[in-house]
Amino acid sequence: MLAVTTRILRSRNQVINFGRLNDLPSLADAKNTTVGLEYEQDDSLSVLTTRSLLDDLNLPLGYETTWVVVCIGIYGIWKLEHAVAATAVIRRRSIELVFLTGLVAVSAYSFHPAVGMYAHATYACAAVLFVSGWCVSKDGGTSCSRFVPLELSAWLLGLLLQREVNLTVLAVLNLQQACFFSWNRRRREDDTSTVAAVATLWMSKCAFYALGNSHLMTTIEIGKAYTGLTTYSQGIVGFLTFFIVMTGPTVVILAAFTIIPAGKALPTLWSLELLSFLVYSVIVYAMRFHLFIWSVFAPKMMYHMACLVWDIVLTVVAVALSAGSL
After folding, report:
1. Which of 107, 132, 140, 249 has the fewest Cβ atoms within 10 angstroms?
2. Distance of CA 134 to CAs 95, 115, 124, 146, 321, Å?
3. Which helix (H) or strand (E) holds 139?
4. pTM here?
5. CA-CA distance, 245 to 306, in Å (whole number)?
6. pLDDT per residue over 235-269, tens digit each?
7. Where are the domains of the chain?
8. Per residue in 56-90, pLDDT tens?
């Protein structure tokens, strides 16, 4: 099941690539540039469409969000039941209540996007979940269980900020993480730490592209970064834009920290990330006089650097939680 979900996420790019590059009628004749379809006729992009996986069903506004909310809600409750210590019943129920409240707010906002109160409620629930990760550790939770509220917080923000055409992809990504969690629970920790860390990095890259991102600046979603805002704030908009781009890697990495201790996962993750950055730095230096240095190589380098910055943020949070102080 883990392999199937990963294949579905990758096929969102590859099937459309094949269709357009081979002039299949359904895409060759399409001129639709509405939300989710704007890249289908752009030959400069590797991401050729961000159509919903349920595009053919023509669901009314809000309905796709609702069923994805239900799926992620079930996952969140199931994850809390299995990952948070049984002795911390009151704390676990409190986290569940906050999480479910956030999901209801997300669903309500999808039906009434003009009512900013629902978005504000979602932000508040996400913030409470983030802070509650520290509280879990004080109730006898393991180092891994502290990351469950943080993961749920990321899912809430992803549901709120991602475009509706990406929500079914979030549901598939959610199923993928459920399979990954189940697989790791059946294995000995010593046998899976390195394997799980490598798989985490692989799935995070897959999730990055599956949510409609590429190595070009034109695919950055800026409009959704203003969700629920009544006044402009450069810091808030910048953070939300960053999170929208990094939603996939964020939920995957935080989900991994609920399975394997951060102290065992981080060395492998950073080794692979830095090795990748080193190799690409050498390539960029070798290609510094290439005709496409600013249109192809430089943007990818900027994304590499942005990923490293985000990895630093996640690492600081992981180390702080693992050490028992935030």
Report:
1. 140
2. 12, 32, 17, 6, 7
3. none
4. 0.85
5. 10
6. 999 999 999 999 999 999 999 998 888 888 899 99
7. 1-59, 60-324
8. 556 666 677 888 999 999 999 999 888 766 556 77
